[in-house]
Amino acid sequence: MDRLLPPVVGHRGAAADAPENTLASLRLAAEQGVKMVEFDAKLTGDGVAILMHDDRLERTTTGQGPVAAAPWAEIRQLDAGAWFGPAWRGIGVPSLEETLALLVELDLNANIEIKPCPGRAVETAEAIVKAVGGHWPRNRPGLVLSSFARESLATARDAAPAVPRGLLLWKKPADWSAAAVALDCCAVHCAAQYLTPEWAAEIKRLGYDLAVYTVNDPVFAWQLRDWGVDSIITDSPGAMGTALHGW
Ligand code: G3P
Ligand code: MG
Question: Of 54, 59, 193, 219, whose CB has the highest number of CB atoms within 10 Å?
């Protein structure tokens, strides 16, 4: 049976080699041979789902201030490539809708991380589910919604129960398995810094797919495989795919 998550997932596209969370990064990940990309989705001030990691615009765009305070008409004018290098100048912030269209065109699967700005967990999940409903072909597999925000996962569970969910974790919470059951998750996505062989075995024993982020060292990735990890979320999907050949 095919697993929900492939052995290698491109983090924010191919974040080591292209500006994260842009269409260029997703295209490059596809060119590097990966079957699935992870990216972060949140809302503009006026409720448009876009790809962006931070709650503020400064680090990855030419804009300033909170994402939640800027309308889409303003954000779509920003440069989201220049910070990464002159060769990437002129690349914009993508909407989730145009991203989904590109993924279908590239035959690329997606782990959409629902990354709400503070106080927007429910509306962010609702908007993402709506975009998925309108732009991801019905019955096309290969989509996983994950989040650290349990309210977002609960909203996704209720609004689109058929789309698989992954519980994103950092340090091990005492209630992680209760949360995974309550949110009806198929996968658990753990931080490489905090996963232990014991915890990995527990996750696998309970029947979840196990993804680990963000792993750029192939030696560590092979060790994680021995722990039972199913999927490596990496900034360098091409190099990792080559290194994990035979996984
Ligand atoms: O989805 C895995 C990983 O992306 C979670 O952390 O901060 O890189 O979005 P972050
Ligand atoms: Mg992420």
Answer: 54
